[in-house]
Amino acid sequence: MLLSLAPMEGITGYAFRRVHAEVFGALDRYYTPFISPLPKVGAPFSKRNSRELDPANNQGLNVVPQLLTNDADRFIWAAGLLADMGYREVNLNLGCPSGTVVAKEKGSGLLRNLPRLEAFLADVCGRSPLPVSVKTRIGIANDDEYDELLALFCRCGIAELIVHPRVQKDFYDGAPRQELYGKTLERAPFPVAYNGDTFTLDDFNTLVAAYPQTRHVIIGRGLLANPALAREIRGGGGLTCEELKRFHDKLYESYANDMGGNAVFRMKEWWSYAEHAFADPSSVHRIMRKTRQTDEYEAAARKIFSTEKLAGSPRFS
Ligand SMILES: Cc1cc2nc3c(=O)[nH]c(=O)nc-3n(C[C@H](O)[C@H](O)[C@H](O)COP(=O)(O)O)c2cc1C
User: Using one digit for the tens of pLDDT, what is the confidence trace for 55-75?
Assistant: First the structure.
């Protein structure tokens, strides 16, 4: 079974990936948050994206860069740069539900116009120097859009399909339509991965019991709330307070080195997920909420780790 970290913009960048692997053991794959905008043909990646992709910052990890674009030439150019850096796969984002992205016909916005999507996908799969995997939602508004979309993917020569079985209009609400993941497993000629609401070992076991052909599960929020979740799925021990603190301290140190005082805002985003590792997430939230300066933040983190108890079974909710 392959277990990977979902891409999460603003959270799962290179520092997070490195520290996660160091403290909890490496996952099978780490998908980068979407890279956008892509460089013009002939130009290098921006400074920020170069740092994210620099092999030196991703050493020893199996990292798959994710691109967000609807421009085939820029995709091919970026895939060439990635191939030169040593990457072995590139992932296309067809899932981002944000209004501004969708309005530009990127992310899940590309699911609105299937003839255009097919032309784009056939072009990039035909010309990309790297195998192209796709992370998709099942449509814009309704489940019944998916039959046609899946048939399209089956014609395009993609390397793997990651299915997050929600429509764009769901954002992250409601239950994932796992039966459409099941349909993908039955029909697809390429490897399939599942993504969506795997928050506990039970969620994972229920998925695999219902769909025993499952071979790859990609986990986002579940791993933020419980960074030991993949280890538990593999039969290892549950999260301890000591290792969560070690993870926190290393992540904070890494952000502080990279961005100084802005590390506090990055860390508070992480806490909005990590608070669910604790028995009383709202108490953790209250302690963290008003911190702005580094000294306030550090005092709040110390208080949480010395007074708050971990949940018996941490779970994002
Ligand atoms: C804050 C945030 C940022 C995200 N950024 C990305 C992204 O850059 N690329 C992407 O494909 N999905 C992104 N996602 C979606 C996740 O990768 C994933 O599909 C979603 O959270 C469902 O999986 P989960 O229930 O395991 O979290 C993001 C989700 C959140 C909440």
Answer: 999 999 999 999 999 999 999
Q: Of the candidates 157, 101, 116, 164, which has an alpha carbon nearest to the alpha carbon of residue 138?
A: 164
67 forms bridges with which residues in the sheet?
A: 35, 92
Task: Supply the pLDDT for residue 313.
Answer: 87
**218 Cα–ligand 1 center, Å:** 10
Write the pLDDT tens digit of every residue in 267-286.
999 999 999 999 999 999 99
Closest Cα to atom 6 of ligand 1? 8
Tell me how far the alpha carbon of residue 216 lies from the centroid of ligand 1, in angstroms: 16
pLDDT tens sequence across 112-147: 999 999 999 999 999 999 999 999 999 999 999 999
Closest CA to 69 of 91, 53, 49: 91
Atom of ligand 1 nearest to the CA of 269: 1
- CA–CA dist 68, 38 (Å, integer): 8
Q: Do 154 and 189 form a contact (C-beta atoms < 8 A)?
A: yes
Is the Cβ–Cβ distance between 120 and 128 less than 8 Å? Answer: no
Residue 310 has a CB neighbour count (10 Å cut-off) of: 16
Q: Which residues line ligand 1 (CB under 6 A)?
A: 6-11, 33-34, 66, 93, 95-96, 135, 164, 195-198, 219-222
Output the DSSP codes for 55-119. Answer: GGGGTTS-EE-EE--S-HHHHHHHHHHHHHHT---EEEEE----HHHHHTT-GGGGGG-HHHHHH
Q: Is the pLDDT of residue 260 over 90?
A: no
Q: Cα of 153 to ligand 1 centre, how many Å?
A: 21
Rg (CA), the chain: 20
